[in-house]
Amino acid sequence: YPWETIKEYSEILFQYYEGVAKISINRPEKHNAFTPQTIKEMSEAMELARQDERVGVVILTGEGGKAFCSGGDQSVRGHGGYVGEDNVPRLNVLDLQMQIRRIPKPVIAMVAGWAIGGGHVLHVVCDLSIAADNARFGQTGPKVGSFDGGFGASYLARIVGQKKAREIWYLCDQYDAQDALQMGLVNKVVPLDQLEDMTLDWCRKILEKSPIALRMLKASFNAELDGQAGIQQLAGDATLLYYLSEEAKEGKDSFLQKRKPDFSKFPKFP
Ligand code: 1HA
Q1: CB distance 77 to ligand 1 below 6 Å
Q2: Counting CB atoms within 10 angstroms of each CB, which of 119, 180, 227, 230 has the fewest?
């Protein structure tokens, strides 16, 4: 596909094609393990994808066909987090997880090869996951001295159930694509050479749909688990819709025209 580069980065690719933005971790020699810099770049790209009115769907993936993402780069793990060139330890992937949940457009994880540790959690928080037949899933935290008790635990449990989620974290086993399909952890499994075709096919189906309906659905699915923050997102979308109405515009117009608002003509629905 003729992907066009939106912006050049050092550790990711950020590309556009027909309504779709693709954010791809580009460290295949490390199975696409992330550093603070990788996450900083992904965060900026996600924000640009959010602001870009051409973009209706975001694909999250990894380059090379052998790994989606193997989590935090253990070789830069320091005292209190993953350390970049500024010598500051960071767990900034948690902010990226929030961005993936907050962006009012569907995010699809396109998973080839390893989705492990913090890389597994990244696919978990995406709206949809499409896996190649070579995909392998798992958490490693208790083995390598880490854990993600946020979405990595609670949202995983919503997806696969409490027993299975505890098994995944306590045993640190690896699961193949069919296992993942069976436990509802991925939406579809396809041969590796059809992964991008299938993912773009799903993107096209989504892009034909009503953007506001999709936006409201994403916020609604999030609201239950995200508590007050989820309700805030859903309520914000309700405000967006209200601002589109004549009734809300009467409030603003009357203020600017220094007169009393007249809401009498607006219906009081049963
Ligand atoms: O838990 C969190 C967080 C929790 C809260 C808040 C923030 C968090 C942020 C991050 C994380 C984490 O991600 S912790 C979990 C970190 N990840 C792992 O424990 C996975 C480590 N990797 C592996 O277990 C294996 O590499 C593998 C099962 C994915 C693949 O095995 P395989 O096919 O045998 O390949 P392997 O030879 O191990 O890997 C290829 C190269 O990639 C190796 O480099 P080389 O020896 O050739 O120089 C390997 O060291 C490197 N590599 C793979 N994964 C990582 C890595 N290097 C650094 N960090 C990695 N994660």
Answers
A1: no
A2: 227
* pLDDT given at position 81: 97
Ligand 1 pocket residue status of 172, Cβ below 6 Å = no
Type of residue at 264: S
User: Does 73 appear as a known binding residue?
Assistant: yes
CB 159 within 8 A of CB 132: no
Ligand 1 center to 71 CA (angstroms): 6
Q: Is 149 annotated as a binding residue?
A: no
Query: Tokens 């970049």 label which residue?
Result: 84
Q: Compute the distance between CA of residue 112 and CA of residue 109 in angstroms, rounded to an integer.
A: 10
Region of residue 117 (left: phi > 0; alpha: psi -120 to 50; beta: else): left
Q: What is the dihedral of CA 142, 225, 205, 17, to 10 degrees?
A: -60
| Residue 134 structure tokens | 């070579």
ipTM of the complex: 0.98
Query: Residue range 45-58: average pLDDT?
Result: 98
Q: CA nearest 27: which of 84, 72, 88?
A: 72
pLDDT tens per residue across span 69-111: 999 999 999 999 999 999 999 999 999 999 999 999 999 999 9
Here the tokens at position 76 are 């830069």
For the record, the structure tokens of 62 come out as 């990894």
Closest residue CA from atom 4 of ligand 1? 148
Mutate which of 70, 111, 155 for ligand 1 pocket (most atoms within 8 A of beta carbon): 70
Do the Cβ atoms of 46 and 76 come closer than 8 Å? no
Ligand 1 center from residue 30 Cα (angstroms): 7
